[in-house]
Write a structure and sequence with these properties.
Layout (H helix, E strand, L loop, with lengths): L4 H7 L8 H46 L1 H7 L4 H25 L5 H20 L35 H19 L4 H15 L2 H12 L5 H28 L25 H16 L13 H4 L16 H10 L2 H5 L2 H9 L2 H22 L1 H9 L3 H29 L4 H19 L28 H4 L18 E3 L4 E2 L7 E5 L6 E5 H5 L8 E3 L8 H20 L2 H10 L6 H17 L1 H11 L2 E6 L5 E7 L1 H33 L2 H8 L35
Antiparallel strand pairs: 1-2, 1-5, 3-4, 4-5, 6-7
Helix pairs in contact: 2-5, 2-8, 2-9, 2-10, 3-4, 4-7, 4-23, 4-24, 5-7, 5-8, 5-10, 8-23, 9-10, 9-17, 9-22, 15-23, 15-24, 15-25, 16-17, 17-21, 18-21, 18-22, 18-25
């Protein structure tokens, strides 16, 4: 075939006279170098993005591990802690659409790097209240404080307490009120988490689409699986860091630790929650550095250069030649890019698979976010574990199962060449069996601890009346006790009493953690009592509880793995069933919907529901309700697991609808070819449709052939 002079001139417009044979030889050499550059560049970006995912997941999971610590430190209920947790999603909401839509047209790596700096600033801000608020104060009877003064817990007459001691105690309370009344330091935690959300916004939509644009098509699912696996490794270290910090007293380095009279087993214990945020902030700064040195574009893989459907095309780019495209990018204005915003939005919402999958994901994430947020609290209250041990167990046992499940999902997709229809089946199957396993956890809870006046009467019978009235009995009627105090002691009969005063104790010996109470009238009247003494701190759960906790861990690990297997197939389903140039925008809308309709409300209404199971609320120093000290174990189990299962079941019905639509749009031939990676359920009904240049194909019936292959 002869080449016309115009075509020849146009082809060599940027060169001087070059022999054809030398040019072809040069092109072969440059192609080899370009291939190496492409592979190296995408792998460097993959490593950098994986580290960023690790950093943001570490700080996010550390926040989950400190939920109970923040609740106790700032004396706030679970519902307000849920608002603080949801502020991260609010930060995403503020800029997610702008970042996902316009960020794809700009320098994506540098935008991710800037987000890391903002994320680290927010993490540092969360830790700041520790350095501005006073030392942590907890409720303790004066006799348990290191002192030579010995007082009777049961104050039958105020004259038993020396006046100087009462005045000193009252003066401390008044001083605390003056400081507390003028500050709500938890707001800084909320603002810092909000800033974290803003900084994290560009990482997912820009990072994932950057990989999908420049990676070899067959490796896209595996690369995404690697990134998501790194995002799960982060929580392992986040919860382990939370476990370490929970062992350290909150004011470590500021007070004498020998003067601390509470232990990590107490409901009032607060660990060094602020320390982990300083560490997470430094890691976020380091994670953002490589992105400032990565290029805006990478060379396209050879397999994508000659295919019009194998790479992400923007409607704002005229694909004539490289020089014209570069010139157009430089001259593009923000207003010109914005013209296609609403048509693009209409195209997305006209796609039934995208909408149904979005609904399924929103409801499922409501279930998962609520479950993960309050899982440490559930383990602490249900099985009587310390915050440190709870975080250690979640980080070392539960999270690795999730990481392995997500990676397994990506590996299965690549190994068996599963298409879009197969991805939908795999995602549905993992959700169904995962929630089915979760159902068995209802039988693995512990009964309520025996707490006199709250769960049992002072004579040993199960309590059915209002707990505030039941706190007082004949055995403590002669004592001047407050129903608002929470200073638990453990009687030798195995029953916990809200305070030494309500236990009717007449004398005490020792100080600090070694204090022993004697002549406790309420302990002696209990039906199984053989002695009337008690020690500081609550009693341990029943003998069956440790065994049930072990069963809970085993089922929880299997459930976590099963649910997470569907993670990567879900991502592939999302990416392959939309127009190529809308991938960044679709991921942005998807993330926005998850943040607004799941990330923000789920922790709040889960927290409100959990608050309804509280049996004993703490009291703030200046009056008013503080953090919950004791929960009804049975009610907590049904509320926590029940909400999770109901939401999960609804999401499964939407997943079934997704599969039904995909089956309806695919022919048997498409399903067969999909297994070989050639075509899939999201493909058009005929190969001819792929070449029709009509606006009708932009609607939900149009999914390019490339989007059906891995």
């Amino acid at each position: 075939m002869e080449i016309s002079s115009k075509e020849y001139t146009h082809f060599f417009s940027n060169n001087t006279i070059v022999p054809v044979d030398q040019s072809s030889f040069k092109s072969e050499s440059s192609a080899s170098k370009e291939k190496q550059s492409c592979c190296g560049g995408i792998k460097i970006f993959l490593g950098a993005l994986s580290f960023v995912y690790f950093a943001k997941a570490l700080s996010g999971s550390y926040l989950k591990s400190t939920i109970t610590q923040i609740e106790r430190r700032f004396d706030i209920p679970s519902s307000l802690v849920g608002v603080i947790d949801g502020s991260f999603e609010i930060g995403n909401l503020l800029i997610i659409i702008l970042v996902s839509y316009f960020g794809a047209k700009l320098h994506r790596p540098r935008i991710i790097g800037a987000g890391c700096l903002i994320m680290s600033a927010g993490t540092f801000l969360i830790a700041m209240p520790q350095f501005f608020m006073g030392r942590y104060r907890y409720e303790r009877f004066p006799s348990t404080i290191n002192s030579t003064l010995s007082l009777s817990p049961c104050l039958q007459e105020k004259s038993q307490t020396p006046l100087s001691a009462l005045e000193k105690s009252q003066a401390k309370i008044n001083a605390g009120c003056e400081k507390e009344a003028g500050s709500s330091m938890w707001i800084y935690v909320l603002l810092g988490n909000l800033l974290r959300g803003i900084g994290e916004t560009p990482i997912q939509p820009l990072g994932i689409t950057y990989i999908d644009d420049y990676a070899v098509e067959e490796n896209a699912a595996l690369y995404i699986g690697c990134v998501q696996t790194a995002a799960i490794i982060g929580p392992i270290f986040g919860f382990l860091l939370g476990s370490l910090c929970a062992k350290l007293y909150v004011d470590i380095g500021f007070v004498d630790l020998d003067s601390v009279t509470i232990s990590p087993k107490d409901a009032e214990w607060v660990g060094a929650w602020w320390l982990g945020y300083l560490i997470a902030g430094v890691i976020s700064v380091l994670a953002g550095i490589p992105f400032w040195f990565l290029p805006k574009h990478l060379p396209k893989p050879e397999s994508r250069k000659d295919s019009s459907t194998s790479s992400e095309h923007s409607k704002f780019i005229i694909e004539e030649n490289k020089d014209q495209r570069t010139s157009y990018w430089q001259q593009a204005k923000l207003a010109e890019m914005a013209k296609g915003f609403f048509p693009s939005l209409k195209n997305l919402f006209g796609n039934p698979v995208y909408i149904l999958y979005l609904c399924a994901s929103i409801i499922q994430f409501n279930s998962l976010i609520g479950m993960v947020t309050y899982k440490p609290k559930y383990i602490e209250q249900q099985y009587g574990q310390t915050s440190s041990k709870t975080n250690f167990v979640i980080g070392l046992i539960n999270i690795p199962a999730v990481a392995f499940g997500i990676f397994s999902g990506g590996l299965i997709m690549k190994k068996f060449g599963i298409g879009v229809l197969g991805a939908a089946k795999l995602s549905l199957g993992s959700s169904f069996f995962g929630y089915l396993l979760l159902l068995s956890l209802f039988a693995m809870g512990c009964e309520n601890s025996d707490v006199a006046g709250l769960t049992v009467s002072y004579h040993g019978a199960k309590l059915m009346t209002d707990y505030e009235e039941a706190l007082f009995s004949e055995c403590n009627s002669g004592c001047s006790c407050s129903k608002n105090d929470w200073d638990p002691i453990c009687g030798e009969n195995g029953v916990t009493y809200v305070s030494a005063c309500l236990a009717g104790c007449q004398a005490s010996n020792g100080s600090g953690k070694s204090t022993v109470f004697f002549n406790c009238s309420c302990v002696g009247t209990f039906e199984s009592s053989q002695s009337s003494s008690a020690v500081v701190g609550p009693c341990q759960k029943g003998n069956e509880c440790p065994k049930r906790f072990l069963y809970f861990l085993v089922i929880s690990v299997i459930t976590s793995y099963t649910l997470s297997v569907g993670g990567t197939p879900g991502y592939i389903l999302l990416l392959r069933c939309i127009k190529p140039h809308l991938k960044s925008f679709a991921l942005g809308i998807y993330t926005l919907a998850i943040r607004v309709l799941a990330g923000i409300p789920a922790p709040v209404y889960f927290g409100v529901a959990i608050d309804t199971t509280c049996l004993k609320w703490g009291s703030k120093r200046c009056g008013g309700r503080g953090a919950c000290r004791l929960y009804d174990s049975s009610a907590l189990r049904y509320v926590y697991l029940g909400l999770t299962l109901v939401l999960g079941t609804v999401s499964i019905f939407f997943s079934i609808a997704v599969l039904w639509v995909l089956r309806k749009r695919s022919s048997p031939q498409d399903e067969t070819l999909s297994a070989n990676g050639e075509r899939g359920a999201c493909g058009t009904k005929s190969r001819k449709d792929n070449f029709v240049n009509s606006d009708q194909l932009i609607q939900s019936t149009y999914w390019p052939e490339k989007e059906t292959r891995l």
